Amino acid sequence: MNRRGNPWRTLSVRKVYDNPWLELWEENCLDPSGRPALYGKVSFRSKAVGIIPLDGEEHTWLVGQYRYCLNQYSWEIPMGGSPHPAQVLESAQRELREETGLRASSWQQILFVHTSNSVTDEEGYVFVAEDLEQGKPEFESTEDIAIRRLPIREAIRMAMDGDITDGLSVAGLLRLALMRGWGPDTTPVEAPPRGLR
Fold first, then answer.
1. Which DSSP symbol is given to 156?
2. What is the pTM of this model?
3. Among 50, 160, 177, 181, which residue's beta carbon has the most beta carbons within 10 A?
4. 76 and 149 together in one domain
5. pLDDT for position 187
């Protein structure tokens, strides 16, 4: 891998907005050609954590909710935020319990990603949770969540077909499929992904 040095030069940094979830920074800099540039960066106060619960019958759980920023309904793996400097595994365990009621005794991190590295420094983590025990969800006041148990291969198909569009969910499900040699329960199609139709 070619690891080159930073060709950008930062001249000044100014916070222009913050709330309990994020900060927005305005940075004056020189771009790689030496020309003045203005960069906006979103810094989230939490790391993103996603969980793929998996039972002995190769079923998983998805959560569905209306996403305000998208103005549409979204099916996703259970997920949430890990406040700094909390441990991401502890946060993943909490989020799984809160959103599905599930507790797991076996955990494996399968993915680390930068979620949108042109505008944010956010880190994302995905875990597989196994050896599950069912309990009651503990929803937050902002959550109106539907819970769906389904075969893991169906969830993988949803990620491939564009029925799941959340980036952390898609990346986590496809990573798990590659790791375990699973393909989706679907016939290959020539149609473009849903967002391109």
1. H
2. 0.87
3. 50
4. yes
5. 46
